[in-house]
Design brief:
14 helices; mainly alpha; 289 residues
Length: 289
């Protein structure tokens, strides 16, 4: 549902930006008529943000669907078990990230519309209202993060989550090996995100048994960190697979944008997970005042 609302909000914002005229392009001659707002760099940035976040959430959803299929259809019992455990890990991540993205993308869609997005006639505001409930029902996203940390990470003594991280590393290596200029700094950004995820995962696995309160204080940033790394490598994998196809250039540009504009948050999220519990504990003084 989060992916669907985000996609609709993106499509509507894109169409509006192609039609709405305001200002002129940077390279327009003096006296030129007003240009569609899609020529302005900040509008293009917002539209790319909407597209990239939506497609990252979609890759997580499709990964989950594939793992669920494999958990039933793999001929080997051990492989069915491995797929089931990976699906269990991805389930709370896909639900929480996709619905958070639905809200974020719909909100950006309102911004692209400007004042017109705030009033009812465009329908942009309805996407934001519709998206907001999805983070709450079917288990709030905070509950999804707790489920991930307490129940899913320990599966097979942590081997299941480590296998997923290993697959992400394989994608990063493939991006580096491809040496495609269109990826820009994607390999470095994705590699750093996977490193952050691995360190945060090791911290979580070590901390849960001795200090559950500290682990839970970092559960939500940990889930987002996981989603960024998994979503970013998922987009990169898609871009690699689509090289030479009609939509290959668009897939490459989307993967690069996500890596260079969003995946960099991974470092801060890692620190929130591994070093942020004390700040949460200190909030007692605030709420006691």
């Amino acid at each position: 549902q989060g992916v669907a609302i985000a996609e609709r909000a993106y499509q509507q914002a894109l169409a509006f930006a192609q039609e709405r005229k305001q200002g002129t392009a940077l390279d327009a001659p003096k006296g030129a008529p007003m240009s569609p707002i899609i020529v302005h760099p900040d509008i293009r940035r917002m539209l790319m943000e909407m597209r990239a976040k939506t497609q990252a959430a979609r890759t997580l959803s499709l990964l989950l669907a594939a793992l669920l299929d494999r958990s039933h259809r793999e001929p080997d019992e051990a492989r069915r078990k491995a797929a089931a455990e990976r699906a269990a890990i991805i389930t709370p991540i896909a639900k929480a990230y996709a619905t958070d993205i639905g809200v974020e993308v719909a909100s950006t869609g309102v911004q692209v519309h400007g004042g017109m997005g705030y009033v009812e006639e465009t329908g942009a505001a309805q996407h934001l209202r519709d998206a907001r409930i999805a983070t709450i029902y079917e288990g709030t996203n905070g509950i999804q993060a707790i489920d991930l940390v307490l129940r899913k990470l320990p599966l097979s003594n942590g081997d299941a989550v480590k296998a997923l991280i290993g697959e992400m590393r394989g994608v990063v290596a493939a991006v580096r090996e491809a040496n495609t200029p269109g990826f820009g700094h994607s390999a470095a950004r994705l590699g750093a995100a996977v490193d952050s995820l691995e360190r945060a995962t090791e911290w979580m696995l070590a901390t849960m048994g001795i200090d559950q309160a500290s682990a839970l204080a970092g559960a939500t940033p940990y889930l987002k960190l996981f989603a960024l790394a998994q979503g970013g490598t998922g987009l990169a994998k898609k871009a690699l697979a689509m090289q030479g196809e009609d939509q290959g250039a668009a897939a490459l540009a989307t993967a690069r944008f996500y890596a260079e504009h969003h995946v960099g948050e991974a470092t801060a999220l890692e620190l929130a997970v591994t070093e942020g519990a004390g700040a949460v504990e200190d909030s007692t003084a605030v709420f006691a005042a």
